[in-house]
What does this fold into?
Amino acid sequence: MAARIDMSKIWLLMFGPVIVLVISIIGLFAMQTSVPVYQETFRPQYHFSPPEKWMNDPNGLVYFDGEYHLFYQYHPYDVIWGPMHWGHAVSTDLVHWENLPIALEPDDNGTIFSGSAVIDVNNTAGFGANAMVAIYSYNTQTQGVAYSTDRGRTWTKYAGNPIMPALATPDFRDPKVFWHEESGQWVMVIAAGREAQFYTSPNLLDWTFASSFAAGHIVATWEVPDIFPLDIDGETKWVLLVSVGAYAPAGGSGIQYFIGDFDGSTFTNDNPTGTTLWLDYGADNYAGTTWNDEPNGERIYIGWLNNWTYANNIPTSTWRGATTLPRTLRLVNTAEGVRLAQAPVAALESLRTPLGTWDDLTISSTEQVIDGVAGRTLEIIAEIEPSSAERWGLKVQRSDETGTRIVYSPARSSLLIGRGDTTSAGPIYSFSPAFGAPLELNGDTLRLHIFVDESSVEVFAQDGLVTLTAQTFVEPPANGLSFFADNGDITVKHLEVYALDSIWSAPE
Ligand code: FRU
It folds into this structure.
């Protein structure tokens, strides 16, 4: 009997090698294009950003039972703004973050906009003692409540939502709620058009209008207000933060603040109505608020490191959006009056590896590179003697071709950031290339504390009295540091540089 020819074997012999080759090529290609999470180009290494997709405002900042909670405006299905959810992460030190599942999802009342969270220690709302209660806006500009009795891990929406109807103004949102000890009640500050409104409540569910406040920058919609006490010279002052959607000093969205008094129902401004104080002169610090119940009595702030003008266009890949560094706030006396100052939280020092210190460096050229400094994640502390050089300062994320400049201009009495507005993919739509903060040195040294993290630069000048926060899409491998003085020279009295570790664990 003639042997049967097994056609399947012949096919395999003929095409087997071709199939193996094709599979190998696909595998190689996939390996090259799928970069591990938190290792993509431009991915912040020690700032919070979600594992994937879009984030905007930080929300519901509250400390409870050993954890700092960071909820945030999250669109889990795309890298542009869309139907809002609350994403969730926790930290025990404000530096390392653990990503948790989505906390709040849209429901029949709408999608979940910004808001705050409190710990209801005395069970005023009836959800249980120590329930974590979120008070947030729906996109319909009504307000809702949700609660968790398992440390924020699972959430139940209040059956009586919405607890506050929309107003006639199209913008009524972003409630910040806190327990006001002196008057023994809950207080809410909420944005309403171009003013902030205050409401009070015994139980987080029934709210009574108390007062409204408007001053300063009122040429754009107010959003994401916050109010909190800070002591200065043995006196308690109240600081009101308000995010404004447009026409901030660096263009687009930014944050103004007011200093005054608050008695549980009314805020009184210490400054004339026309005075506008800005929290940050950089383009990328928006919708920031502070933690409720911080255990060490500190007032800690975090913002969205972005600007609505171009937020949907920034050239990141699998994710879009990050937070600023967490910053400790304090009040200081200045010649102009009491002002807010910011400092990166001290726990960030745990990420440091020293790269060197230098003293009395004379810079008398248009560029002097600091040898031995290379890093995409750097902390730089510099003290520079005032100089009459035309422009002077330093360049981070430096290569021969590119970099981000931090410039002091004596003629303009300002500290500026100059950043590239183009990547190899083309110009970044609406991205402003330069902006600055007013800063008179009056013979003082320029004291800079700078954080560089892959696609951002945060500058704290004069002990945090002036801050400039900016996204900077300088492509790798640019990672150097240099100083410059145009038409003159400068003395860098002291320089200290650290490489900062990534907070995201190394891949398996
Ligand atoms: C601020 C903001 C808030 C709003 C949220 C929507 O950036 O516009 O007013 O609640 O973002 O995502």
Remarks:
- The chain has one helix and 36 strands.
- The helical segments are 7-33.
